[in-house]
Write a structure and sequence with these properties.
248 residues, alpha+beta
């Protein structure tokens, strides 16, 4: 299901033995535009400490009741590796985090979640462990960006500035940022700008998006038709089929 990332903020995170806190923001991978971690404000029970929760641990999303259920205990989260959110999240920290929770690594594989198509598959100890160990040795630097830091970046069309990033649209199954990344030419992190290979007129005349309206596949189809771009879900269907065959 697609949803505006604004609705993620404030969602209650429930462990198997009680509430952990609320979602404050997220870190996404600027290479694949995949959400790698939710930033959770724990509140009083952990002295207001902020922790990272990976989509790998998410068991259920309940948008109606504004709640995310995770397959973790409060004790696990309490003793998880500490992190300074004012500093970049390093690959070494990610490796320590994955080792603590016994997750396979998401980087280095052919899919959006490395050797797995869905994040939940990385929590299963299987043949992925061998590939995961290889990826640990060959890992490069992390490509993580904070959603809060990128919100507000100016958007440049091919013929001038058209606006700024207000929010993200995310897929709560793959935990990927949708729509825009496929049409981005490049991002200048130093200049706080996103360059799209679309004209101002193309963007201005696109089907209107309303936060109050559900993001349906029908709307996405209209958007892709307008921009003359092939639907991403056809490509993902091929990847799903490929992953299913390779997992047999």
């Amino acid at each position: 299901m697609l949803t505006n990332a604004a609705f993620l903020k404030g969602l209650a995170i429930h462990a198997t033995d009680g509430e952990l806190g609320t979602v404050k923001g997220f870190y996404f991978d600027d290479d694949t535009w995949t959400i790698r971690y939710l930033v959770v404000e724990t509140g009083g029970w952990l002295l207001g400490r902020q922790v990272l929760i990976s989509p790998i641990s998410i068991a259920r999303v309940d948008w109606k009741n504004k709640r995310l259920d995770v397959a973790l205990t409060k004790e696990q989260v309490e003793h998880s590796p500490g992190i300074d959110l004012h500093q970049p999240v390093s690959r070494q920290h990610e490796a320590d985090y994955s080792a603590y929770y016994a997750y396979n690594y998401y980087w280095g594989g052919p899919y959006m979640w490395g050797p797995a198509f869905y994040p939940a598959d990385l929590s299963r100890k299987s043949s992925l462990e061998v590939a995961s160990e290889k990826m640990r040795r060959e890992s490069a630097d992390s490509h993580l960006r904070s959603s809060e830091a990128v919100t507000g970046y100016h958007v440049e069309a091919t013929d001038g500035e058209i606006g700024h990033i207000d929010e993200f649209v995310v897929d709560d199954e793959l935990w990927a940022v949708r729509v825009a990344p496929a049409w981005i030419l490049r991002v200048s992190w130093a200049d706080y700008k996103v360059y799209a290979f679309l004209s101002r007129e193309e963007i201005k005349s696109a089907p209107e998006y309303l936060v109050s309206r559900p993001l349906t596949r029908e709307y996405e189809g209209l958007l892709h038709t307008h921009y003359g771009r092939p639907p991403y879900w056809l490509h993902e269907a091929e990847h799903r089929a490929s992953f299913s065959l390779s997992s047999v």
